[in-house]
Design brief:
Blueprint (H helix, E strand, L loop, with lengths): L1 H30 L1 E7 L4 H16 L7 E7 L4 H13 L4 E5 L1 H10 L5 E6 L18 E5 L4 H11 L5 E6 L4 H16 L3 E6 L6 H11 L2 E4 L3 H5 L1 H11 L3 E3 L11 E4 L2 H16 L16 E4 L1 H6 L4 H8 L1
Parallel strand pairs: 1-2, 1-3, 3-4, 4-5, 6-7, 6-8, 8-9
Antiparallel strand pairs: 10-11
C-alpha cells in the first residue's frame, strides 16, 4: 500500500512536471511574435521602407528569438500577390505589413482577420483600404507616402527657373501616381508652364519614356511611382547624358537620378510604421490607430549633379523656402 502511494505520488509529480514543461513551451512560443511582410517589388524605396521597419522593431526589442519575420516579395506579379497573401493568411501571423498599394489591396482581399499595416501608399482611401483614415474601418492602417506635390513643383521651378516645360514620368496603372500627376499638372499650369507627360507600364519602358522627355522637356519631375523607381538608375543615365535635370518626390532616389528634392525618406517611413506595429503587438486595435502622414521631409541633393547643373547650396536653400 505504501509503495502504491509512492508510485501515485511520483506519477503526480511527473504529470505536474510535464504540464509545467508544456506551459513553459507555450510561454516561450507566445514570447515570439510572427510578422508577415508582403512587398510589391524589389526596388530601392520599398527596400528602404522594409529595412527601416525591421530595424525599428529590433530597436524596440523585437529581434532574435523574439520575432519571426515572414517576408515574401511578389516581384510586381499580380498572381504572386494573390498566392503570397493567401500564404501569409495561412501562417497566422500576429501582424502583417504590406509595402505598396497593390500589395495592401491583395493582402486585404485575402485576409480580413490578421491586423494589417501598410506603408509606401499615397492615398489609402482611394485604394479602398479604408473609408475613414482617422478611424480605420477595414482592419488596415499605416503610414502614407503622400508628399507635397504642389510644393515640389514649386521647388523644381525655383531651382530651374528657365525651365518652361516640365516633364512628368509615371505608370498610368498606379492609382497613387495618377493622383500625384493630376496635382502636378495643376500646379505646372498655375505657374504658366507646360507639362509634358510620358508613361511607363513596366521597367522596360522607362528608358524610352525618359529619353522622350529629355528631348521635349527642360526639367523632369518624378512622383513616388514604383515602376519609375525600379528604373531610376536608367533615368539617371538619361538625365546626365541629355543634361536635363530630374527632381524626385522620393529622397531615396536622389542618389540614382535626381539633382535634389525636399521629399520623404522611405527608411524613416518604415521606422514610423514600425512604431505603429509595436502598439498593435502590445494590444492596440487597428481601428484605434489613425492613418499617419510622413512625420518629416528632408532636403537632400546629389553633389555630382548639383555641379553638373551649376547649382550651389544657396540655390538649393532658396528653392526650398
Amino acid at each position: 500500500m505504501k509503495m502504491k502511494k509512492v508510485l501515485v505520488g511520483l506519477t503526480t509529480i511527473v504529470a505536474v512536471a510535464s504540464l509545467a514543461a508544456c506551459g513553459n513551451k507555450s510561454a516561450k512560443k507566445s514570447d515570439t511574435v510572427k510578422v508577415g511582410i508582403l512587398q510589391l517589388i524589389d526596388q530601392s524605396a520599398l527596400n528602404a521602407a522594409r529595412k527601416g521597419f525591421t530595424e525599428e522593431l529590433a530597436k524596440e526589442g523585437y529581434k532574435g528569438d523574439k520575432i519571426k519575420i515572414d517576408y515574401v516579395n511578389a516581384q510586381g506579379d499580380q498572381a504572386n500577390l494573390k498566392s503570397m497573401s493567401q500564404q501569409l493568411k495561412q501562417d497566422k501571423n500576429d501582424l502583417n505589413l504590406a509595402i505598396a498599394t497593390p500589395a495592401a489591396q491583395a493582402l486585404q482581399k485575402e485576409d480580413a482577420d490578421t491586423p494589417m499595416l501598410f506603408t509606401a501608399i499615397t492615398d489609402p482611401k482611394s485604394a479602398g483600404l479604408t473609408t475613414n483614415p482617422k478611424a480605420p474601418d477595414k482592419n488596415a492602417t499605416g503610414v502614407t507616402d503622400m508628399v507635397d506635390v504642389k510644393g515640389q513643383i514649386d521647388f523644381t521651378h525655383k531651382l530651374f527657373p528657365k525651365a518652361k516645360k516640365i516633364g512628368l514620368l509615371y505608370n498610368a496603372a498606379e492609382a497613387n501616381s495618377v493622383f500625384q500627376i493630376k496635382l502636378a499638372k495643376q500646379e505646372i499650369k498655375k505657374l504658366g508652364l507646360t507639362a509634358v507627360v510620358k508613361t511607363a507600364a513596366t521597367t522596360n519602358d522607362v528608358q524610352q519614356a525618359a529619353e522622350a522627355l529629355a528631348g521635349q522637356a527642360d526639367a523632369i519631375y518624378i512622383p513616388t511611382d514604383n515602376v519609375a523607381a525600379a528604373g531610376m538608375a536608367t533615368v539617371g543615365k538619361v538625365s546626365e547624358k541629355s543634361k536635363v535635370p530630374v527632381v524626385n518626390a522620393d529622397a531615396t532616389m536622389i542618389k540614382l537620378a535626381g539633382v535634389a528634392t525636399k521629399g520623404i525618406n522611405y527608411e524613416d517611413l518604415g521606422k514610423q510604421t514600425a512604431k505603429m506595429a509595436v502598439k498593435i503587438l502590445k494590444g492596440k486595435k487597428v481601428k484605434s490607430l489613425p492613418i499617419e502622414s510622413p512625420a518629416k521631409t528632408e532636403l537632400v541633393s546629389n553633389a555630382k549633379r548639383m555641379k553638373l547643373f551649376n547649382l550651389t547650396q544657396a540655390d538649393l536653400e532658396n528653392a526650398a523656402k
